Amino acid sequence: MDGFRASKALFTASKMGVFDLLQKSPGLDAEQVAAEIKASVKGTQCLLEALVSLGLLTPSDQCEFAVLYKNSTLAAQFLGSDSPFSLHSYILHTDNVVWPLFSHLENAVRDGTNQHEQAFGKKAQDLFQALKLRFMNAMHSIAKVTGKAVATAFDLSTYKTACDLGGCTGAIAHELTKANPQMSVTVFDLPAVIEMRDRFQPQHLDKDHRVSFMAGDFFKDDLPKADLYVLARILHDWADDKVEILLSKIAEVCKPGCGVLLSEIFLNEDRTGPSRGLLQALSMSPGRQRSAQEYSALLERHGFTTKHIKYTDNLLDAMLFLKV
Ligand SMILES: C[S@@+](CC[C@H](N)C(=O)[O-])C[C@H]1O[C@@H](n2cnc3c(N)ncnc32)[C@H](O)[C@@H]1O
């Protein structure tokens, strides 16, 4: 029961700028924090104490009159908007979009469909259009946290060209080029996403321009030629007929020896976990969550063999397939 209170306390502190404030000015007391975030002292005090109990703030009692607060190591790494692996944008997305959807969970379970229209008065696709930049920021923050684990899960040194299908801001593409000096990556995504890409490009990381972008629809348009196709957080979102279309298109352009790098949360084969995959399924997208064996069966129907599986211990796992 406390899980939802803990989540909301974290979202609220992020939204009100508590972690950013304590990153900039560590060692403030509740009154000082309250003044900076423009909130009541009582409310701020309760929030700060709850965050300490969650391991997100560290109290220091060096001052004899009041407790002084600073970010814990965990918060410093993940919760400031400028933290190295900032999840700030993902937290805002979860609070603004996922939370309202989950407040309609009973209907979602009854109907087996997502509840975007009930929660926002808009279809999922229209909501994505309206919140495009926020959605991209959310995807980018997760991809930054997990991208290195995905890009380095396997030896990809034989692949010179890759195409990241639905590669969004290019965060995983940059990790792939960092880990593979021989590789160039084309990020293929919808025009509305590609036109916003400049906001996310780390210029210092791509001096030799090995990451490029192409706008298109992976269900309708020709796919760019590549030795390796990346599908990260794509297949779980789509109904089976769409997954079949996409995999057929990839199989068509892949020559023998070409690879597919798939990255998703892999369910245990007996579907008992991990809970982050099973809870994500409750969003009721048209797709579904699968185990590694289920992904193998899916790709094998399209002429791929399973080369490696890696449970990364990060947010996303990875599999490498080869076209035979
Ligand atoms: C869940 S996000 C995953 C982003 C990225 N692969 C990652 O793991 O960080 C799904 C991506 O697929 C893109 N997408 C959805 N439909 C698409 C289509 N028909 N053609 C190309 N890209 C599409 C979305 O714009 C979005 O960037």
Automatic annotation (TrEMBL):
Question: Which Gene3D superfamilies does the protein's record reference?
Answer: Vaccinia Virus protein VP39, Winged helix-like DNA-binding domain superfamily/Winged helix DNA-binding domain
Q: Which UniProt keywords apply?
A: Melatonin biosynthesis, Methyltransferase, S-adenosyl-L-methionine, Transferase
Ranges for domain O-methyltransferase C-terminal: 102-304
Q: Under which pathway is this protein filed?
A: Aromatic compound metabolism; melatonin biosynthesis; melatonin from serotonin: step 1/2
Q: Where is the O-methyltransferase dimerisation domain?
A: 1-80
Q: What class of enzyme is it?
A: transferase
InterPro entries for the chain: COMT-like (IPR016461), COMT_C (IPR001077), COMT_dimerisation (IPR012967), SAM-dependent_MTases_sf (IPR029063), WH-like_DNA-bd_sf (IPR036388), WH_DNA-bd_sf (IPR036390)
EC number(s): the record gives: 2.1.1.4
Q: Is Transferase tagged as a keyword? A: yes
Query: Domain of life of the organism in this record?
Result: Eukaryota
The protein's assembly and partners: Homodimer.
Sorted alphabetically, which PANTHER family does this protein's record hold? O-METHYLTRANSFERASE CICE, PUTATIVE (AFU_ORTHOLOGUE AFUA_4G14580)-RELATED
Identification of the protein by name = Acetylserotonin O-methyltransferase
Organism of origin is Periophthalmus magnuspinnatus
The taxonomic lineage of its organism, from the top, reads: Eukaryota, Metazoa, Chordata, Craniata, Vertebrata
